[in-house]
Design brief:
single chain, about 350 residues, alpha/beta, six-stranded mixed beta sheet, five-stranded mixed beta barrel, DNA_pol_alpha_bsu, DNA binding, DNA replication, nucleus
């Protein structure tokens, strides 16, 4: 029998976790009425699969009941952005992710330390990810706050805005006062003084940002943790799980390719493709996670997990990026000259 090539989405044959024996390939509604076929992966030397992954496979289905896969085709990432404007001088970007309070207090002392760092290092842009007021904080859960959620949040933001230059605020699904849906709309700050509006950018979650021609992909959702819990792999070489997951994000061209999503995520699929798809491969992808901080080069994209600013009752980490774009001549050079994860 001749091998055929088919396209579909990876799924699991039951409600449990995906494993090598429970993988099915599901077709789309238009061409195959959502039909499913179980997959036999025993002939593949290496693979990395997760529910929701769109794949092309080569294999045979001699019984009509199971497809024996002989080849798995990798996805291809989108091209990088090609800026037309001339290159600017080097920019320093500081990235930090909440919570900005320790687990035993709602005083923003770690945030005050970060503002001191910002005053000392004077970064050109600060990208701050939520949660700014963490729904998982014990005093938030027990409503032991000095005022309403929105008021505490505004006080926190006022503290940051007064002490910094150009600011980008990315919301989080753990922000207790904000819309609990993914993709998530930007924060609203109607009382922001007119003088501050040009330098304070309120962006959605996830978001693709252009800083002087260097493109940053930003997401506060812990997709590394979510996908790491669902991905299955078999590999002959030494393969790093973080790199595999980040590769999937870039080749699936989505900030959240996992389907069905994690139980802690409420996904609005009507707006998902408009707001959670990658338009280009970012030069830098910032994905804060509970898992260990890292800086990695994946398919030419610099991926950084800056960690969280607080870890329980102690200080955590933040990230620093140095961006310097060269005028395009010949081969592409990453505009990210250096990336560091720094202890607070």
């Amino acid at each position: 029998q001749e091998a055929v090539t088919v396209l579909g989405q990876i799924g699991c044959d039951s409600n449990g976790k995906l494993n090598a024996k429970s993988v099915v390939l599901e077709g789309d509604q238009e061409h195959s009425a959502g039909g499913q076929i179980p997959l036999d992966l025993s002939e593949l030397k290496e693979y990395s699969l997760f529910p929701g992954q769109v794949v092309a496979l080569e294999g045979t289905n001699s019984t009509g009941r199971m497809m024996v896969v002989s080849k798995l085709y990798e996805g291809v990432p989108l091209p990088f952005h090609t800026p037309t404007e001339p290159a600017q001088e080097q920019r320093m970007v500081l990235v930090a992710c909440g919570p900005y309070t320790t687990s035993d207090s709602v005083a923003y002392d770690p945030l005050a330390d970060l503002i001191d760092v910002i005053a000392r290092d004077r970064p050109d842009v600060c990208v701050l990810f939520g949660p700014f007021l963490d729904a998982k904080h014990e005093q938030v859960e027990n409503c032991q706050l000095p005022g309403p959620f929105a008021e505490v949040f505004k006080r926190c933001l006022k503290m940051i805005i007064e002490g910094t230059r150009r600011l980008v605020f990315v919301p989080s699904l753990r922000d207790v006062h904000h819309d609990y849906v993914y993709p998530q709309p930007p924060f609203l700050l109607p009382e922001l003084p007119k003088d501050d509006k040009p330098r304070v950018h309120l962006v959605p979650e996830p978001c693709t940002l252009d800083i002087d021609g260097a493109v940053l992909g930003l997401t506060s959702t812990d997709l590394i943790f979510h996908m790491g819990a669902e991905e299955i792999s078999s590999s002959s070489g030494i393969s790093d799980r973080f790199t595999r997951i980040l590769k999937h994000v870039l080749t699936q061209r989505s900030y959240y390719p996992l389907y069905p999503p994690s139980e802690e995520l409420n996904v609005d699929y009507e707006s998902f493709h408009s707001y959670a798809s990658l338009r280009v491969t970012p030069d830098v992808l910032v994905t804060p996670s509970e898992l260990r901080y890292f800086v990695k080069d994946v398919l030419g994209c610099v991926c950084i997990n800056p960690g969280r600013l607080t870890k329980g009752q102690v200080g955590g980490t933040y990230g620093r990026l140095y961006l310097q774009r060269e005028d395009a001549q010949g081969e592409r050079k990453s505009p990210c000259v250096a990336a560091q994860v720094v202890k607070i």
